[in-house]
């Protein structure tokens, strides 16, 4: 009997014990297909795993000034000017303001952008602006509505804190001061005795006071300052240029 021209493998069927003959070439192709599918499957798993890692946050030193400013505003907005922030969050703001200060112009006190109306949106020592009205006990009685600083050419500074007492009596504390340039970054403001308005009553109290402030950054929307005792202030322009 003539021999077969192709080698074959015999396999026993578990159902009817019939012999089936499968060419080696066909079996080899099937094995190769299975290996290829397995390889592709593994590669897909590797690719999926590689893109599943969370993106790392960009450090402040790698951000542009506008990005740093946006991050600062996002962290201090609706925090009662820093009162509700945790210690860790204050440190995050300090890191951002320190990094943004590196982009400050050489002589910010001579920059015309200093003039205008500014909202005080943050202070690292939240009780610093507003005095006793912003202390822990004071905040139980007085709710701060606005805290505004107006810098008028050539050398006038007006601070205004508006509040509601006990939730129904509106009031306001205002100060007028003279701005004195100390050097290219530092200014001093000598304030007259403050004016207090409570309901329909208005009177003057206390005496003169003065503060020193370093301007560490300024642009058309944001101004950063640092007090003589290290407190960091963030000011936001009320009517920024478009």
TrEMBL record:
PANTHER family according to UniProt: PLASTID-LIPID-ASSOCIATED PROTEIN 4, CHLOROPLASTIC-RELATED
Keyword terms of this UniProt record: Plastid, Transit peptide
One GO cellular component, as annotated: plastid
InterPro entries: PAP, PAP/fibrillin_dom
Compartment(s): Plastid
Signal peptide, first to last residue: none
Domain Plastid lipid-associated protein/fibrillin conserved: 70-235
Chief location of this protein within or outside the cell: plastid
Pfam families: PAP_fibrillin (PF04755)
Coiled-coil regions listed: none
Protein name as catalogued: Plastid lipid-associated protein/fibrillin conserved domain-containing protein
């Amino acid at each position: 009997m003539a021999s077969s021209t192709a080698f074959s493998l015999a396999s026993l069927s578990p159902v009817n014990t019939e012999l089936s003959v499968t060419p080696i070439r066909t079996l080899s192709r099937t094995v190769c297909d299975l290996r290829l599918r397995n390889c592709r499957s593994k590669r897909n798993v590797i690719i999926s795993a590689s893109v599943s890692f969370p993106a790392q946050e960009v450090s402040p030193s790698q951000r542009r000034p506008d990005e740093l400013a946006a991050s600062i505003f996002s962290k201090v907005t609706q925090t009662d000017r820093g009162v509700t922030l945790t210690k860790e969050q204050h440190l995050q703001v300090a890191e951002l303001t320190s990094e943004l200060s590196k982009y400050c112009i050489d002589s910010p006190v001579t920059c015309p952008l200093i003039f205008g109306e500014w909202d005080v949106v943050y202070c690292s020592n939240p009780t610093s602006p507003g005095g006793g009205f912003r202390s822990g006990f004071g905040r139980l009685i007085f709710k701060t509505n606005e805290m505004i600083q107006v810098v008028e050419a050539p050398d006038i500074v007006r601070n205004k804190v508006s509040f509601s007492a006990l939730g129904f009596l509106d009031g306001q504390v205002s100060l007028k001061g003279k701005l004195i340039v100390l050097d290219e970054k530092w200014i001093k403001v000598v304030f007259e005795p403050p004016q207090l308005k409570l309901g329909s009553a208005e009177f003057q109290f206390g005496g003169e006071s003065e503060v020193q402030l370093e301007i560490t950054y300024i642009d058309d929307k944001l101004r950063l300052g640092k007090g003589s005792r290290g407190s960091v202030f963030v000011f936001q322009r009320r009517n920024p240029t478009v």
